[in-house]
């Protein structure tokens, strides 16, 4: 029903956006609560409350039949292309959460008069979903129905759902629940499984195997329930199987039914017998026990990931933890065969494709907190090198040109054409797959960032160098010589701001390309001198000798836009000469994304000073020391006036940039908006999945922006600029494999390494150099002055 | 929700089944009415009330979002095979009936507290569906919502839906309706369109094109509504397009919105411009006018098809008319490229495949009432000859072996294996496609029946002879010589009764095979003598000289089971030696179809005297003069005791057989059950479509059985045996292209031909011979005696 509400039912335009969910703290854990039955918020809440463990993501849909939601289960790396004319997409897998309930002849439905109370809540720290509803039947009987679920972090293949019915009044004589595995799910009407096999083993385990072009998904389900009074009845459906289980509940009694589901892509195959045994063990242990094991792992994870902020409001605390929950949940912990999709594992949005979001917005969190996971993400890109080489060659370039949208291979997955314009019938070419090239520098940048912070030489030698060298070769071939400028230029390109297509010398792109080539050139020289064997091996394959000079020369002579007299860095060659859009506030306030395209054609938008999202501002974030504070501030303000923030990647970039120069109040304004991108009271957003990059952006803004953490040239930099009302921040970061607990308040910066540094770590706190062996405390020198700038 | 109700919620087992719907007569038209909102009956009612015009069938789903129904639109002949492992099936096409309604911010939903009254009714004579519901909003406003639809008989491509809102209290300030073409429909989770293109023309017409492997479906939709206050907004969805239209309604006012939809398989392509013009004209004329044109055609059709029965109860009248409505609605009037599916165009059941139902159960109605349509159905089989020849060859036989299940070609569409047994994992072989051969004789039988009644020589010369000769050749090759019997036998076969597999000399099959070969032999001789050119042409292609002797010999020497000492015709060689099933009453009374297979394995069932459906009894119907009344009665009673009637084809066969021998009371018992197969109060039946063959059986039973009409050897036979309470029947049949009005009551049989017979027609009334030129009245000789035996 969300569709019809667009812009008509909502009255929230322009209001300061709020977190839609109530926040409840319980023993250090935070719950988000939806306190009433809200069909309009069904799709959004399903994404926000999704159970994700990095292997699977299960939307937090109601189990009972309902009109308003959209069930979804997504498995990391499980992509398929249904038809030649469709793109490869993350498959919406068979549903395991749905059930029908008939009590004494009455079907129990949330959209009925019988529903008297409803609550859906979600524990950000454990990932547990609890849906509680109370029904009063016409017979006078009333009961409370509880549906609890989690995706296990102890065994990533395990999903558990427990359904409980507690009688508040009266009893149930004939109860029946019908549930199983439903393979009739589609990606919005497109089916993916070319064959679905269904089995029941031992009159107990339901098994569904779905065959895709390249993969086979296997789902095994075991159940346990109180008092097995009557034998279950299993029924084969098209593409699925259901079990019907029967029960009765005395007055005041409770009936419990638990599903243990083992889900795997057959590639990571554990035999059925072992799966059955595992489910058997779960069933013997029970929901609480299995959950406890999961929770312990989660606690360990949170010990590493936690960010404690004294003074932060519950909303702020919730938003930051929420971001981290989903970051943890979207990470394919045990695989290097896939990466992180734009919507994580929570919805069909962006077809589950992987963008630059993964390296630039999401990777930093993992790099500083779970470096092994960060390494996995980059190894995935290494595996994609051949595809990237093919793409470069296809476009007449050298080296490796990464796809704008990736799935499981390095192949470009961006469709060449978007759907036809419904009015003109013309196909809109999707230029981003053809012209948005910065991702190829972004990946090289991420590789070096990862190495800088982790010191993971083995990674560099096996994977990292090759990525950097091959992307540098691409950039050299991508440039062209400009006689007038006597410099290399990069023409006809799209930068991060996708409202400006086909421009020359996009600032972000050119700086990143220069960085990439400079890095390659310096590393090549170093390797040649220090690791001649590796160098020779790389030379044989990549032509190091032949190429390194060109990297150097390109880096030296590539034109990059510099701040003009007003200190503005031109976004590209023509941006500053375009006219401004007259009514930008209208679009900034609109709850409808890209509303500007309803009033202006794409060509008109391209010809105006109007940005979808941060572009130059992103550049400022990635190179925090390159420009003066004055230049940074000028550019943030200049571009913000021209930015609609139609991309969820935008607010966090602005917030971080402002924080980095100590413009904490301005930063806070952006941060407030960024925090609620998924949580606000706009029911039309986040419906097809959470915004993965923005969640990464929240973490970056807090750690890089407010805590002022950065790392370069082997030195940890801490330049805190806490928001006014934040009194203290405590968190940990990993540097060179050492976990450092950081405490920042207005009087002190305290760093404690859990292991001693053998070679003391150089640390810069507020521009003064220190060293860290195990503990470093830097006190505020002048008591009148904040340590946080 | 129907699934969970199976056998648990229903209390109707064993009760005499009733028509679930209220019956209302209005000016000679009959309405079926569902008087309240009944989610459990949603699926069934959607099938029963479907709008069908032979080209399209649209399930009578609620337009507003609802959990319980299953939308469906099926186009005659539009089949597709989605995956190699799936079978070809009738495609569930994009939906055009759904809409969302938001009134002053409140979504209108039938499953809500706001619904105060509900009625869904369906006019059997015009095919119009009217869904009326009353809502009372929380604001206090109340209104009546009406949704009327029909599939036009004037233009088979046209579907019209009109939605009206009449305020009963208060007004609507901001109303919005969101509706369009939704291509996210699947056949139970399987998508068929490999590409879907969407357009809006002239900011007015919505157009969706869906591409299948072989066909392209085009749907063009125009709308008109009262007061176009605000411009419509069109939105592209995945696989569809929606328009949002805005309105307000004053107190006491009415708002009307009408959709005119032009649907075509591009094969029968009318250009878009002409389609638009047609829709424009409709829009100018308005629903009432367009409906009137449709209604006039329907009235013409009913003038030919009507069966008036004085003394029949409203239920009986409704059931007979209902059968005829759906027979008319499933007939592809203008095509010879497809035939009639087991569920007509009302659901996904049996994948939309064509069985012997079409020729043996459905064709008779058309043959006597709309002979051109009957000819179309048979021409479809002629087009399938090549496929049938290929099937014969593949199995090592000669001639043409028709597929047990057909779609658009003559190819066999029966899957080789049914779904895996969920408990054993073994695939059940589907033997009917391999061993159920009688369809190949059924088609030859139908061809000759058609010719006998119509005298359509042109048809025989172009199509009919070839079918008969080729099927005869198949039968000869299918038989084998039995030394002991000194006769040909047909071994390892399945007759109509599918609970008895792999038997030898199935009575039905052997008699039909003999008939087919005898017919071929006689016709060959006649052709050779009377039409030597045609004979030579056929000889060249079919080897007439070579084959005709073998047809004759096979017919002469084929063993057929004859009545034994107890007058029982053995169903096959071993049937009478099998033991009876002990508890057949249990399964006869079960609301669950094929419940016997839950208690016994297929092999056990095969080894018992238990029938799914009429087998020998069918034989008695097809050859009404072959056996004495005594033999017929004996066999009907003998086999009925052993028949569960798990097939909907069974009751009508028994009813007709009993009527034919004057066992009217016994016949009536079967007929009562047959009448309500689709209409009864079992919500779990008819959910995936009406039972086409059974509806044909109702007509046959009334006309062949009760009115005692038959035609053979150029003579019309009328031997009425009206049920006690039927006082008079009036109907028409076409013989040799002459429409004969028949009136039968207890005193008189009156035949009036609308055109004079140049050569008077021989007529047998109650075993006495008369002739008909224009009028024939046969009075009851003895006033004490009924003319109806």
From TrEMBL, chains A, B:
Keywords: Glycosyltransferase, Hydrolase, Transferase. Residues 711-772 form the Glycoside hydrolase family 65 C-terminal domain. It comes from the Bacteria. Residues 34-263 form the Glycoside hydrolase family 65 N-terminal domain. Residues 322-699 form the Glycoside hydrolase family 65 central catalytic domain. Transmembrane segments: none annotated. The keyword Glycosyltransferase applies. One of its GO terms (molecular function) is hydrolase activity. The keyword ATP-binding does not apply. PANTHER family: GLYCOSYL HYDROLASE-RELATED, PROTEIN-GLUCOSYLGALACTOSYLHYDROXYLYSINE GLUCOSIDASE. Belongs to the glycosyl hydrolase 65 family. This is Glycoside hydrolase family 65 protein. It comes from Blautia celeris.
């Amino acid at each position: 029903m969300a569709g019809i509400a667009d812009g008509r039912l909502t009255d929230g335009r322009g209001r300061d956006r709020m977190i839609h969910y109530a926040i409840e703290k319980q023993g250090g854990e935070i719950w988000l609560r939806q306190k009433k039955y809200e069909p309009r918020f069904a799709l959004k809440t399903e994404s926000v409350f999704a159970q994700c463990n990095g292997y699977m993501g299960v939307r937090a849909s109601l189990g009972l039949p309902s009109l308003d939601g959209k069930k979804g289960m997504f498995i990391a790396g499980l992509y398929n292309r249904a038809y030649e004319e469709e793109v490869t997409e993350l498959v919406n897998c068979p549903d395991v959460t749905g059930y029908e309930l008939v009590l004494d002849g009455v079907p129990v439905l949330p959209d009925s008069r019988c529903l008297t109370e409803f609550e859906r809540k979600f524990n950000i720290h454990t990932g547990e979903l609890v849906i509680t509803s109370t029904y009063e039947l016409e017979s006078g009987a009333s009961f409370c129905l509880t549906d609890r679920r989690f995706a296990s972090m102890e065994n990533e293949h395990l999903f558990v759902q427990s359904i409980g019915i507690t009688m508040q009044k009266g009893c149930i004589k004939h109860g029946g629940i019908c549930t199983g595995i439903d393979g009739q799910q589609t990606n919005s009407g497109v089916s993916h499984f070319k064959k679905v096999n269904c089995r029941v083993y031992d009159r107990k385990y339901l098994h569904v195997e779905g065959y895709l072009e390249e993969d086979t998904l296997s789902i095994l389900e075991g159940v346990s329930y109180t008092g097995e009074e009557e034998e279950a009845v299993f029924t084969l459906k098209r593409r699925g199987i259901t079990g019907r289980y029967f029960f009765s509940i005395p007055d005041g009694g409770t009936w419990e039914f638990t599903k243990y589901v083992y889900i795997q892509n057959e590639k990571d195959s554990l035999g059925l017998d072992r799966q059955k045994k595992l489910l058997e063990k779960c069933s013997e242990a029970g929901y609480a026990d299995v959950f406890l094991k999961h929770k312990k792992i989660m606690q360990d994870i949170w010990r590493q990931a936690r960010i404690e902020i004294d003074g932060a409001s519950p909303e702020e605390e919730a938003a930051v933890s929420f971001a981290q929950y989903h970051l943890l949940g979207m990470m394919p912990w045990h695989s290097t065969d896939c990466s992180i999709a734009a919507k994580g594992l929570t919805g069909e949005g962006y077809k589950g494709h992987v963008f630059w979001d993964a390296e630039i917005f999401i990777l930093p969190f993992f790099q500083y907190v779970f470096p092994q996971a960060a390494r996995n993400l980059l190894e995935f890109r290494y595996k994609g090198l051949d595809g990237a080489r093919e793409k470069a060659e296809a476009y007449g370039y050298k080296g490796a040109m990464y796809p704008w949208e990736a799935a499981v291979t390095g192949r470009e997955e961006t469709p060449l054409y978007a759907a036809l314009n419904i009015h003109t019938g013309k196909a809109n070419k999707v230029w981003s797959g053809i012209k948005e090239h910065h991702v190829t520098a972004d990946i090289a940048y991420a590789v070096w960032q990862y190495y800088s912070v982790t010191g993971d030489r083995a990674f560099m030698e096996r994977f990292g160098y090759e990525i950097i060298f091959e992307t540098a070769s691409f950039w050299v071939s991508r440039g062209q010589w400009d006689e007038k400028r006597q410099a290399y230029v990069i023409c006809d390109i799209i930068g991060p701001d996708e409202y400006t297509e086909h421009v020359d010398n996009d600032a972000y792109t050119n700086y990143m390309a220069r960085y990439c080539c400079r890095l390659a050139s310096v590393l090549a020289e170093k390797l040649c001198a220090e690791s001649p064997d590796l160098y020779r091996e790389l030379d044989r394959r990549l032509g190091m000798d032949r190429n390194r000079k060109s990297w150097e020369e390109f880096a030296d002579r590539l034109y990059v836009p510099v701040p003009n007299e007003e200190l503005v860095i031109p976004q590209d060659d023509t941006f500053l000469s375009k006219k401004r859009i007259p009514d930008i506030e209208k679009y900034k306030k609109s709850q409808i994304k890209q509303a500007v395209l309803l009033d202006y054609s794409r060509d008109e938008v391209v010809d105006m000073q109007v940005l979808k999202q941060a572009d130059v501002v992103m550049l400022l974030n990635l190179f925090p020391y390159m420009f003066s504070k004055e230049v940074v501030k000028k550019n943030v303000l200049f571009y913000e006036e021209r930015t609609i923030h139609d991309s969820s990647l935008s607010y966090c970039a602005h917030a971080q940039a402002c924080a980095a120069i100590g413009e904490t109040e301005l930063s806070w304004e952006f941060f407030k908006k960024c925090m609620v991108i998924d949580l606000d009271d706009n029911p039309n957003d986040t419906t097809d999945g959470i915004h993965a990059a923005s969640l990464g952006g929240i973490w970056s803004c807090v750690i890089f922006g407010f805590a002022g953490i950065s790392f370069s040239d082997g030195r940890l930099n801490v330049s805190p600029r806490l928001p006014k009302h934040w009194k203290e921040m405590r968190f940990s970061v990993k540097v060179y494999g050492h976990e450092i607990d950081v405490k920042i308040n207005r009087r002190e910066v305290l760093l404690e390494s859990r292991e001693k540094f053998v070679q003391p770590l150089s640390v810069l706190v507020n521009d003064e150099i220190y060293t860290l062996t195990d503990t470093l405390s830097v006190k505020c020198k002048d008591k009148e002055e904040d340590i946080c700038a």
